[in-house]
Amino acid sequence: MNLRDEVGGIMVGMAFLLPGLAGCVIAAMRRGRGARALMWLGLWSAMYGARPLADSLAALGVMPKWFQAVVPYVDKVSGYMIIVVASLATLELSVGKFRVWIKTVLVAGLAIGVTGIAKFVVTGSSGRVIVYNQLLATCLLLMLLIVVVVPKLSRKYLVLPAGDHRVLAVGTLVFVIEALWVNASRPFGYKTSSLWDAAGFAVLLLSFAYVALQMMFANERRLLSIESELAIAREIQNSILPSSSPEMENLRVSAAYRPMTAVAGDFYEFVPIDQNRVGFLVADVSGHGVPAALIAGMIKVAMKSILSCAEQPGEVLRELNRILSGQLRDQFVTAAYLLMDTQKGKALYSAAGHPPLVRWRAGKLERIESNGIVFGMVAEPEYPVREMDIYAGDRFVLYTDGVTEPENARGEAFGDGKLEQVINSNQTRSSSVLVDQLLVEIQRWRPASMSQQDDITVIVIDVV
What we know:
A hairpin with a 4-residue loop joins strand 4 (333-341) and strand 5.
């Protein structure tokens, strides 16, 4: 082989190796099927380019001896494993029975490749094993050609954007025609340039890459659309939460709401009845995200329809259960409702499977439970009501389980004990300071590497 051929091999190798590596880098920064397909395509291209590049550099003697010694191994590994990488790339585009068939080719290619490489390492020759590898590659190519050329099959067995199967069909067809021409002309003594092989393979890779990029861009457009919709959903959910705390002469109220995701299943509401009475509702929908947020929105609407019984906590919970029961499907809702009457110095409390109400009085913490069953379990449940006297200096804390359930690095929950500790250490501070400090302590308790695992809602009510 002359110098011109060696330089040509280097140029061909670089033409496939560098774009292949670039494709791998781009794919690593993306996600989805299209990105995975692009990654395998990049590796496929790099492996194809590595063979002529290594052979040409070794032939020119410009590389150290150790590199020249490993060139045969590079050649064998690339030659055998390229069918495995090609199968993985095709697998990302396939569905149904065709996907099962591709997996069969993948396993067979891996077995043949390992056998051939192992035999070469031991004996220095892989014998006729490479023939089986080539036969398998031909089967894969012909099956792909049949699927992409027949529209009915491509719609059934390929995950491709509308019309993109034509691009893949053209690329596959060009490569098959080129391969058939080269192999058919050899018995007649007609020697074709290796550039034709490279050109045919380049067309195949480009058609694959086009389809993979279209899939990746479609996925990113879909994700951007979802993010935009979630942003709107977050704004809507924030609009259904109280915009300010109730202004009452003898109460100071502060609240915090920290969703785990863009939208949440926690909900709270202030229900002013008159200048002396106000209700506080806290609810926690099982699960997270949009489904839980939709039910939280339903609670807001349901609460508006039962304001006539807002001074009766047990009746409020019964009515909410009645309205929501047919809508919850497999989800459930816990809730707590506290009514404060500053004129009479009384409070009424009832809950539906919710964490207890915390009352801090004269340096002592008390957990008050008056629980019935969670919403959606029973058609006509009973919710017991606890009546309490309230005095100046009392502090009440309503919260969802996102406050007490976070775990530290040792797997220990924040729990009631830590909650009591934070309330105790901030007993002389305002309700707003306590809320802020509680959120800080929860964040400190959770390992820095761990994201928030549940929605957090807390309301602090001080009697002054």
